[in-house]
Specification:
4 domains, mainly alpha, 18 helices
Length: 540
């Protein structure tokens, strides 16, 4: 498979291709595309190396390789032939969005590419277009050209973004989620619980246009929200959103005066808030996380991301935050927070879990949007303003992303983040990391393509996955015949019967019969006799 090398301007102005291919200097900044050598090599007829090179992997050749394999070609047709059509959101093809998408290549859209399909054993015309882009938030700004910092940092709200500058924390926060509520909602009239004003503004509808859609990166949004909440609950230095500066900002706004810092000489005392945990509660929280046992490959060991000595989280990766936010955090906060604070955190966790489902009912999206707006408003009531950075605000737009671009699981960056580790492993010469990565990837890509045609043969020198054959019943140590005793079989049979709803009336009936026959026996004896004789009684 080919790799095209395209020279680029040292200042990233243009690519030297098409009408600029034969130029030696940038038409915009005048910089030379070649390196300046010590000796006058250009005068001696020696070609100088370029300053910057872009390596492009043609997408059409990769499509041809995918359709050349019958198994991959069948998977490429799943969205039209194998998908369950029941009105649920399972794939972006189920969407009926009115926004236009820009083609990745004018040739693929207008003329298409003739490709052989190994599954149907026929040629067809392939057409393709750019569906959306996905990157972290700084990459979002670089790719879209939108400024993601300052007062108007939200790329969805744009100039209608409602921001507040905190003088002590020295940052902009994005609250104003009451503007997304219905005009008659009672939260709009609650002044003391929010910023001391009645909210009459209505959030503007997002702008639309004929352009490439840049999707919000849910993975990094969830990670930042998780770190902010966990850091605030455990009061982790550098990660907590509650401190002397945050309390001074509350004091300046004139709301929640009971949380204002109290000066005592040179020291300041911060009154406990509703989310403040005592040392005993922090120990309970950390012990709950560190004692969780998860299956192999589910996540990293939770014990390694919790420090019981310092009572804080350490080294949480992206997927760790995903697992904690959606599964572990609702369990860890049970019984250690006031009910209203605990419920609002759980509501946010359940929201993240709902929008990450592989099958989403379109009828529930409006309900999820209404719930997350109320949840964010409740966060404004209970937490300090410094919690509401741009990442927390972007949560309100995630449901809209699902309506336009489909389920989140097809746009998550977890596979790409993991693949970066593989690409970095290709680097042997640190002076040219990009070139080494492209070369290693193209070599492995070619090897994998050839191995598809040799799948029936036994590979030499390639390790086999430890999971290979597990679904077919093959174990790592081979087959092993086990002959259980009659007692073990009866116990296993009883265990299955006890967990069947249809058998439950018979279980109760058998216990009543034993108690009637032996009224003087204790409850422990009745239970033991019930377990011993139920299977035989049930068979008869």
């Amino acid at each position: 498979m080919t790799v095209k090398k395209i020279h680029a301007c040292p200042n990233d102005c243009v690519l030297f291709r098409n009408e600029y291919e034969h130029l030696e200097t940038c038409p915009k900044c005048g910089a030379s595309k070649y390196k300046c050598l010590k000796n006058n090599s250009s005068a001696n007829g020696i070609k100088r190396p370029p300053v910057k090179v872009l390596r492009y992997l043609p997408i059409v050749e990769r499509f041809k390789c995918l359709f050349a394999n019958a198994h991959d070609a069948k998977l490429m047709r799943w969205h039209m032939e194998g998908r369950n059509v029941d009105g649920m959101l399972r794939h972006p093809v189920t969407l009926h969005s009115g926004e236009l998408l820009i083609e990745s290549s004018q040739n693929l859209v207008d003329q298409g590419e003739r490709i052989y399909d190994a599954y149907s054993q026929a040629y067809f015309t392939l057409r393709a277009m750019i569906f959306c882009t996905i990157s972290d938030f700084p990459g979002y700004g670089n790719l879209s050209g939108y400024t993601i910092k300052g007062a108007k940092a939200c790329p969805i709200c744009e100039d209608a973004t409602i921001d507040l500058h905190l003088n002590n924390c020295k940052k902009n926060v994005y609250m104003g989620h009451r503007t997304f509520l219905p005009p008659t909602h009672h939260y709009r009239r609650r002044k003391k619980s929010f910023d001391g004003t009645i909210e009459t503004r209505v959030a503007r509808l997002p702008l639309t246009g004929e352009k490439v859609r840049h999707c919000l990166d849910f993975m990094h949004i969830e990670k930042n929200v998780c770190e902010s909440i966990v850091g605030t609950l455990l009061n982790i230095p550098g990660k907590t959103k509650d401190g002397i500066k945050a309390r001074l900002d509350i004091q300046e706004m004139g709301v929640r005066v009971e949380l204002a810092p109290q000066q005592s000489g040179k020291r300041a005392y911060l009154p406990p808030a509703c989310y403040t945990l005592s040392r005993k509660e922090k120990i309970s929280f950390c012990q709950c996380l560190s004692s969780v046992k998860v299956p192999s490959g589910y996540s990293s060991n939770p014990k390694n991301i919790v420090s019981m000595k310092d009572l804080k989280s350490v080294g949480m990766k992206l997927h760790d935050c995903h697992v904690i936010m959606q599964h572990l955090l609702p369990v860890a906060i049970r019984g250690i927070l006031p009910k209203h604070v605990r419920l609002v955190i759980m509501k946010l966790c359940f929201f993240f879990n709902s929008i990450c489902s592989k099958v989403i009912d379109p009828m529930t999206l409006d309900i999820l949007q209404a719930d997350i707006i109320v949840t964010l408003c409740e966060f404004e009531i209970y937490f300090t303003q410094s919690l509401f950075d741009i990442m927390v605000h972007l949560v309100v737009h995630l449901v809209r992303e699902i309506k336009i671009c489909g389920p989140l699981y097809v746009r998550k960056m977890y596979p790409f983040e993991r693949f970066l580790c593989i690409l970095k492993a290709y680097v042997r010469n640190r002076s040219l990391p990009e070139a080494i990565i492209v070369k290693g990837y193209s070599v492995e890509e070619t090897i994998e393509f050839c191995m598809e045609y040799l799948a029936s043969a036994n590979p030499v020198g390639n390790p086999r996955s430890r999971h290979e054959g597990r679904l077919d019943g093959q174990g790592t140590l081979g087959y092993k015949m086990i002959t259980p005793s009659i007692e073990i079989l009866d116990k296993a049979h009883l265990f299955v019967l006890q967990h069947m709803t249809e058998v439950n009336p018979y279980l109760q009936e058998h216990i009543v019969i034993i108690r009637q026959m032996h009224p003087s026996k204790s409850g422990k004896w009745v239970t033991s006799e019930h377990n011993r004789s139920f299977v035989k009684w049930f068979k008869n």
